[in-house]
Amino acid sequence: MQCLGSATRSLALPARGRGPVLRRVVAVARAKPEKSTDQALQGGLDPYLEVAVPKDQRPVNQLAELKADPLYSWGALEQGDYLVRLAGVYAFFFAFIGGPIAYQTFEPFEQPLEWFLSGTTGALVVVAVVVIRIYLGWSYVGDRLLSAAVPYEETGWYDGEMFVKPPEVLMRDRLLGTYEVKPVLSKLRSTLVGSAGVLLAVSVLLFGLIKAGSDADGMYGRGAARVPRQILTDGILYSSRVSDLSQLASDDDAAAAEAEAQGGVPGDYYGAGCVLTAAPPAEVME
């Protein structure tokens, strides 16, 4: 009986001691394992499924790069933030490129609408180019996400291969392509259509204003200030202080007045076959 009791106690003690151990085992079993960095990038899938493709050529990683890129990430922004970025591009190029170039043709204080529309045309072209660049990047990654097989290069163009996606990878990529990339492409297409419409309207309005403001010579902007004018048999005069082309050859004040009336644009002296904006050289006077 003593041997039996000792044996019973020897069996009972481990049973009581197993409680904390079992609880620890169950807690470990129920705990969710932490995902590795690769698994997080792969959407929770085993990275071994795409081990044949270099990491930087996997569509899911390329999508993550788009979202982190300083320019391409604009496509994933909320509508308000996205439009603010494009407005910033427009304002920058209008202020430093479009506006100064338009100033060479139109006087901002005398022809403000023409000057504004001309500068806007150039700035809108730059905005459209930026949107097209973003669209091409998202379209490329979207095609790779939605395709069942994607090409990749192991070390260069000369050893290109084709990777057929396993079912799990294909399902994940198509979900990303449908719910993340397609809405971005739709927004970018709307932007392109809208900017094209605005650019067309601005161009037509500017053309109409130029046509309406052109003088009889077809000049507009700064050059259109050359009115009134006198059409003579041997040339054209624009200054009311000059009555005959011969005055330009002998009177410096008349030549200066004519040059000022022409807006700095030389006029033709048909009789002498030369251009006069001031007193002519001695050989012309002879």
TrEMBL record:
Classification of source organism: Eukaryota, Viridiplantae, Chlorophyta, core chlorophytes, Chlorophyceae
InterPro entries, alphabetized: CGLD27-like
Keyword Transmembrane: yes
Taxonomic superkingdom: Eukaryota
Subcellular localization(s) per the UniProt record: Plastid
Any GO CC annotation of this UniProt entry: plastid
Residues spanning the membrane: 82-103, 115-136, 192-210
Keywords, in A-Z order: Membrane, Plastid, Transmembrane, Transmembrane helix
Protein name: Uncharacterized protein
Provenance organism: Chlamydomonas incerta
Keyword Metal-binding: no
